[in-house]
Amino acid sequence: METIERTLESQKNIALVAHDNQKPALMRWCARNQDTLTQHTLYGTGTTGSLLRKTGLDVNCLYSGPMGGDQQLGAMIAEGKIDVLIFFWDPLESMPHDPDVKALLRITTVWNIPVAINEASADFLIACEYFGEKFVTQIPDYSDYLIGRTN
Predict the structure, then answer these.
(1) Does a structural domain hold residue 150?
(2) What is the CATH number of the domain that holds 98?
(3) In what residue span(s) does the MGS-like domain sit (predicted)?
(4) What is the reported pTM?
(5) Helix (H), strand (E) at residue 14
(6) Which residue has the higher pLDDT, 115 or 99?
(7) Residue, of 104 and 40, whose pLDDT is higher
(8) Across the chain, what does the average pLDDT equal?
(9) Is the pLDDT of residue 150 over 60?
(10) Which of 25, 49, 92, 138 is at 20 to 30 A from 118, Cα to Cα?
């Protein structure tokens, strides 16, 4: 498949998501990194976004994950409106919306966006020199497909 360049601007659009028993960890992480996060545009699924607002962060809240929030984020990723996903998920607890979570993680791979799935990977990601700088990446070029031409 052909690829095209996508430039992630220095001010990123960051999605923040956490499963219920990971919400306290994400809240602590966001509070610890508040100075950096306030320089970006933040999005969160329903309950997570509402809780993060209590830390003083300006978070654009979507629906809760089980009510379609994961799918909203997936659509935003496909549209190039989300640059980074920080998703503190719980791999040991089955969730009723597991297919939505899997689809969200799949779409991040399809569109080649940076993802952190726990505190350690979030620390590495936010410490990266590109987090607050422009970054050029490659994404699939679906232009032929989108205008109806297929091979």
Answers:
(1) no
(2) 3.40.50.1380
(3) 6-151
(4) 0.90
(5) strand 13-18
(6) 115
(7) 40
(8) 90
(9) no
(10) 138
Is residue 46 included in any domain, yes or no?
Answer: yes
End-to-end CA distance of the chain: 11
Q: Whole domain around residue 100: which residue ranges?
A: 12-133
Q: Which residues are documented as binding site for substrate?
A: 19, 23, 45-48, 64-65, 97
Report how far residue 42's alpha carbon sits from residue 48's, in angstroms, rounded to the nearest whole number.
Answer: 12
Residue 70 among the catalytic residues: yes
pLDDT at 102: 85
Residue 39 within a domain: yes
Residues placed in the known binding site: 19, 23, 45-48, 64-65, 97
Q: Give the position of tokens 């306290």.
A: 24
24 token code pair: 């306290």
- Does 148 reside within a domain? no
**Rounded distance, CA 22 to CA 88, Å?**
6
**Burial degree of 2 (CB within 10 A; 0-12, 13-18, 19+):** exposed
- What average pLDDT does range 118-142 have in this prediction? 94
